[in-house]
Amino acid sequence: MSSGSFRIDLDEVEAAARRIQSLVRELEPFAAKVEAAVRQASPASYGTGPVGAALLGGESASGGLAGQQGRALQGVHRYLGNSGRMAENLLLMCRQYRETDGGHAAALNGLVGSAGSPVLPPAAGTAAGTAAV
Predict the structure, then answer these.
(1) What is the C-alpha to C-alpha distance for residues 29 and 37, in angstroms, rounded to an integer?
(2) How many other CB atoms sit within 10 Å of the CB of residue 52?
(3) Torsion angle, CA of 102/105/110/113, rounded to 10 degrees?
(4) Residue 41: CA atoms inside 13 Å, Cβ hemisphere, count?
């Protein structure tokens, strides 16, 4: 895909999208391990003393450390999901541009004809195969 002001190499875009997919697949198990570890920590594991109460958020609505960890994990899952969808969209874009370019190439080949010289459409008001004088 290109224009007068920019050029995009579809092969590079496709390779980058496949790399993003690979990295997302690689990171998903690590995110699951962290999530499992966070879920194992119950409020009782923080204790009932002042430090435990502070870690649990005390009187605040923030949810303390456990709430913050949960929100961070949601962000990680959202990031991985968005990255996967972006990679899929890039691959779809590449496929559609290639199909469109193939269609344009076929149309141009039809205009050029088998002799290699352009085949011009008939002028308005003339029958096909006759020349306007």
Answers:
(1) 12
(2) 16
(3) -140
(4) 16
11-54 confidence digits (pLDDT tens):
999 999 999 999 999 999 999 999 998 888 777 777 778 787 77
Four-residue CA torsion sign, 79, 84, 88, 90: positive
Rounded to a whole number of angstroms, the CA Rg of the chain reads 30
Nearest to 50 by CA among 35, 64, 62: 64
Nearest to 65 by CA among 45, 82, 84, 83: 45
Contact status, residue 130 vs residue 122, Cβ threshold 8 Å: yes
pLDDT (tens digit, 9 = 90+) per residue, 79-117? 999 999 999 999 999 999 888 888 877 888 777 765 666
Q: Which of 41, 89, 93 is nearest to 65 (CA)?
A: 41
